[in-house]
C-alpha cells in the first residue's frame, strides 16, 4: 500500500472527523480508509485512533503522528509547487480585487495586455471600494493604494501615484483659490471615508497653523462619487493624479496647492503569505510592477 497516500488519508480522517468523509474526498470506500489506517498502525506498532461505533479520538501517538504528517505533507506540497514554478507556464484562474476608480481607469487596460501575453490564464476582476478580506473571499491578489495595515498577508510595491488637489472652475469662482493648507478651513474638502485621522487633508493641516474648522460636507467610500461631486462644484478633491488626469486636461478640474501635495501614495499587490507563489500570480504581479513603473 502507498505509504504517502496512507499519510494523506490519515490526515484527512483527523481533519474531517470520519472515515466516510475521508473516503468521499479520495473517491474510495470507508473500508479502504480503514485499511490505510490499520496499515499505518501496524508499521508504527501502536494505535493512532481510538475508535468506537459512535466516536473517534486521537491517541497520544496519533496526535504526535498527525502533527508530523501535516509538516511532511506541507513540505512536499511546497517542493512540488517550487518545481512546477520552474517548468510550468502560468495557467489557471486568477481572482483579482481592486478599487472602482483605479480598477476601471488604470488596472483594466493592464489586465487586457497581460491576458494577451498569457493566453492560458483567466482573470476574474472584482471592483469595489470596500475593504476586501482576500483570504475569506477567495481572492488571489488585491491591489491597494496607500499604506497598509499590519497583517499576515504579503505585499509587493508595484507603483507610486502622485496626488493632485483639484476643484471645478465653478467652485473656485465662488470660493476662491486655496494657496496653502492654512486656507483649507475656509473651503469644502471632499473626503474619503477610509482616510482616518492621519491621511488625506489631515496630512496637509497637521503642520499648518490651523486645522480645518468644519467637518466635510461630503464623505464617501467611493472615488467616482467624490469625483462627481468635485465636477459638480461641491468642493476640493484630493486623489491620485492618474485618476483625474482626463478631467485636468479637459479643464473640467483645475489643480491647486501644487506646492503642498502629500507624498506620492504607494500601490501594493497584496496576496496570501505562501512560501511559493503560483506562476499565474507571480507573473501577474511582475507584469504590473514592470508596466506601472514605466508611467509612474
TrEMBL record:
Q: Indicate yes or no for the key word Phosphoprotein.
A: no
| Record field: transmembrane | none
Q: Show where the HTH lysR-type domain sits.
A: 1-59
PROSITE patterns noted in UniProt: HTH_LYSR
Question: Keywords assigned by UniProt?
Answer: DNA-binding, Transcription, Transcription regulation
Keyword set includes Transcription: yes
Q: For this entry, list what GO says about its biological process.
A: DNA-templated transcription
Originating species: Methylophilus rhizosphaerae
Q: What is this protein called?
A: Transcriptional regulator, LysR family
Family statement: Belongs to the LysR transcriptional regulatory family.
Q: Which SUPFAM superfamilies match?
A: Periplasmic binding protein-like II (SSF53850), Winged helix' DNA-binding domain (SSF46785)
What's an example of a GO molecular-function annotation for this chain?
DNA-binding transcription factor activity
Amino acid at each position: 500500500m502507498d505509504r504517502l497516500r496512507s499519510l494523506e488519508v490519515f490526515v484527512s480522517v483527523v481533519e474531517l472527523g470520519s472515515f466516510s468523509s475521508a473516503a468521499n474526498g479520495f473517491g474510495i470506500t470507508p473500508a479502504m480508509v480503514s485499511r490505510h489506517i490499520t496499515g499505518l498502525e501496524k508499521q508504527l506498532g501502536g494505535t493512532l485512533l481510538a475508535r468506537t461505533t459512535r466516536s473517534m479520538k486521537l491517541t497520544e501517538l496519533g496526535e504526535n503522528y498527525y502533527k508530523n504528517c501535516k509538516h511532511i505533507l506541507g513540505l512536499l506540497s511546497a517542493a512540488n509547487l517550487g518545481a512546477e514554478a520552474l517548468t510550468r507556464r502560468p495557467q489557471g484562474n486568477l481572482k483579482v480585487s481592486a478599487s472602482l476608480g483605479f480598477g476601471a481607469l488604470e488596472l483594466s487596460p493592464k489586465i487586457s495586455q497581460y491576458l494577451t501575453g498569457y493566453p492560458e490564464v483567466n482573470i476574474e476582476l472584482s471592483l469595489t471600494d470596500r475593504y476586501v478580506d482576500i483570504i475569506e473571499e477567495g481572492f488571489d491578489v488585491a491591489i491597494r493604494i496607500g499604506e497598509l495595515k499590519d497583517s499576515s498577508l504579503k505585499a509587493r510595491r508595484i507603483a507610486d501615484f502622485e496626488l493632485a488637489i483639484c476643484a471645478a472652475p465653478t467652485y473656485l469662482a465662488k470660493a476662491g483659490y486655496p494657496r496653502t493648507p492654512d486656507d483649507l478651513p475656509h473651503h469644502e474638502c471632499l473626503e474619503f471615508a477610509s482616510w482616518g485621522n492621519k491621511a488625506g487633508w489631515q496630512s496637509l493641516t497637521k503642520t499648518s497653523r490651523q486645522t480645518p474648522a468644519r467637518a466635510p460636507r461630503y464623505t464617501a467610500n467611493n472615488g467616482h462619487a467624490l469625483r462627481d461631486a468635485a465636477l459638480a462644484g461641491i468642493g476640493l478633491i484630493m486623489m491620485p493624479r492618474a485618476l483625474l488626469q482626463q478631467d485636468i486636461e479637459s479643464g473640467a478640474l483645475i489643480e491647486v496647492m501644487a506646492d503642498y501635495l502629500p507624498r506620492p501614495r504607494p500601490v501594493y499587490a497584496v496576496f496570501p503569505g505562501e512560501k511559493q507563489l503560483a506562476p499565474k500570480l507571480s507573473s501577474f504581479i511582475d507584469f504590473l510592477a514592470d508596466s506601472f513603473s514605466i508611467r509612474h
